[in-house]
Write a structure and sequence with these properties.
CATH architecture of chain A: 3-Layer(aba) Sandwich
Largest interface: A-B, 79 and 79 residues
Helix content of chain A: 10-25%
Distance between the termini of chain A: 56 Å
Strand order of the largest sheet of chain A: 3-4-2-1-5-6-7-11-8
CATH superfamily of chain A: Survival protein SurE-like phosphatase/nucleotidase
Strand content of chain A: 25-35%
Oligomer: homodimer
Largest sheet of chain A: 9 strands, mixed
Order of helices and strands of chain A: EHEEEHEHEHEEEEHEH
Number of helices of chain A: 6
Number of strands of chain A: 11
CATH class of chain A: Alpha Beta
Number of domains of chain A: 1
Chain lengths: 260, 260
C-alpha cells in the first residue's frame, strides 16, 4: 500500500511518453529521494498543453513494479495522467511531490502555455501538490541528459525540504551544455516572447492542400537580464515560479471605467 | 482582398466546432460590427486547452462566403485555427478583433486552464490582437443563446472602441438566465477553485478496465464577492481580464533565499 511507504511519494509524469529518455533519466535520478509512482502517456503528447480527454475513455495499465518504483502507462494526455493517478492510485493520500519531464526541448518564455510538461505540473499545483516541470534544451530523441541529473536532484531535494506556495509550481529549464559549463541556477521571470508560425503548405497525392505547423520563437525583450531566456542564453539553469491565477489585476480598474 | 475591407475585421473561432449553435449566434450578433472571418474546428474540441497539432498535418477549407463574412473549417484545435488564420488568411494585415465562442458551458474560475475557447483568445493575445472569449452557462447542444446577444454586442463594441492592453484578453461568462433577469456586467478576478475528478471505471466487452473522466467543481472561496463565480451566481455577466505572464512574482524573492 502506498500509504505505508516511509519515503516521500513522488508522482512522475511527462509529455514525451513512457519510452522517452528524459523520463528514464528522471526515474534514475530521483530514486534516492522517494518512492516513485510513474504515470506516463503511452504516446508522445508534445504540444498538448492542458488538454484533457473527454471524447474517448482512458486506459491505465501497470507495466512495471520494482523495489522503489512502479510504472503505469496512460492512454491520455499529461493532465489526464495526473488526474487518473490522483484519483485511482492515491485515493486517501496525496503524493509529496510531482515531477514532470525531463522534457526533450525547451519550455521557457511563452512556450509554457503550449507545454504538456508544464501543464502536468500546473495540474499538480491545482491538486495542491508541490510540482516541478523540468525541460532540457535538446529536442532530439537521443538527447544526452547527463548534465541535468545533479540540478534535478538539487532542486527536488530543496523543494521536498522547503515546500512551495499553494498556488505555485516551478518551471525549470536546463541549457544544453556539459555540466561543468553550466554556471549555476537563476530564479527568473517568464520572458516576453512569441512563436510566429510558418505553415509548410503541401499537396497530398490527391492534389489537396495540407499544412504542417512550424514556427520560430521571437524574444520580445532580448535585453532584459532577469528572464528565463536570458539565464538560459548565458549558461544558467532557469527556474520560473508559475502560478495559476490568470487574472490581470492591473486591468480591472481600467475595465471598470468602461461602465459596461 | 481582406486588406481592402472598410469595416473592422473580426476573426471568429470556437472550440465546439463549426456547426455549434454558439458560433452561429456569434456570427449573427457580430455582422453589424465588422467583416467576419470565421475559422472553426471541424469537430468539437472541448477540453483541448492550448493544444497545438504537431503530429499530423492540418486542413483548412473555405465552406461559405457571403456578403459580410466567410467561413473556414480547420481540422485542428482552436489554437491551430487562430495560427492558421493569422498565417494563411491575414498575411500582411492583422484582424482588429478576435472573438471566440460562444462556448456551450462555463469557463469561469479554474476552468480557464482547460478551455479551448479561452486558449483561442489567449493565442489571439499572443498575436497582439484584442481578444475576447465568450461562454454561456448552458452546456447543452441546443442551448438558447438569445440572452447573450446584447451583452456580446455591447462588450465587442466597447472593445473595438477602447482596445485592450497588449498582454490582456477578456474571459466573459454569461449566466443561464432570461435577458431581463441578468442584472448587469461585473469586472471580476478569477475565482480560486478546482475540479475534483471522479473517474467512472467500467469494463469493456473484453473485461478490460477503462475510465471516463467526470468531475465536480469546488469553489475554494465561496464567500468572496469580487470573483467571476460570485458574479455569475448572483445573476451578473462576469468579465475577467486574463494575462499571459504566468510568473508568480511574489515567489521570486522566496526562491532566491533557497540559495540554489
Amino acid at each position: 500500500m502506498l500509504k505505508d511507504k516511509e519515503k516521500p511519494i513522488i508522482l512522475i509524469t511527462n509529455d514525451d511518453g513512457y519510452r522517452a529518455k528524459g523520463l528514464k533519466t528522471l526515474i534514475e535520478a530521483l530514486q534516492p529521494y522517494g518512492y516513485l509512482v510513474v504515470v506516463a502517456p503511452s504516446e508522445g503528447q508534445s504540444g498538448m498543453a492542458h488538454a484533457i480527454t473527454v471524447k474517448v475513455p482512458l486506459r491505465l495499465d501497470k507495466i512495471e513494479e520494482k523495489e522503489g518504483y512502479e510504472i503505469y502507462v496512460c492512454s491520455g494526455t499529461p493532465v489526464d495522467c495526473v488526474k487518473l493517478a490522483n484519483n485511482q492510485l492515491f485515493s486517501g493520500i496525496k503524493p509529496d511531490l510531482l515531477v514532470s519531464g525531463i522534457n526533450h526541448g525547451a519550455n521557457a518564455s511563452a512556450s509554457v502555455v503550449y507545454s504538456g510538461t508544464m501543464a502536468a505540473a500546473i495540474e499538480g499545483c491545482l491538486y495542491e501538490i508541490p510540482s516541478i516541470g523540468f525541460s532540457y534544451l535538446d529536442f532530439s530523441k537521443n538527447a544526452d541528459f547527463t548534465s541535468c541529473v545533479s540540478f534535478v536532484r538539487k532542486i527536488v531535494q530543496k523543494t521536498l525540504e522547503k515546500g512551495l506556495e499553494k498556488n505555485t509550481c516551478l518551471n525549470v529549464n536546463i541549457p544544453r551544455l556539459p555540466e561543468n559549463e553550466i554556471k549555476g541556477i537563476k530564479i527568473c521571470r517568464q520572458n516576453k516572447g512569441v512563436w510566429r508560425e510558418e505553415f509548410d503548405k503541401r499537396l497530398d497525392p490527391n492534389n489537396r492542400e495540407y499544412y504542417w505547423l512550424t514556427g520560430e520563437f521571437y524574444n520580445l525583450e532580448p535585453d532584459a537580464n532577469d528572464t528565463d531566456e536570458w539565464a538560459l542564453h548565458h549558461g544558467y539553469v532557469s527556474i520560473v515560479p508559475v502560478q495559476i491565477d490568470l487574472t490581470d489585476y492591473q486591468s480591472i480598474d481600467k475595465l471598470k471605467q468602461w461602465n459596461l
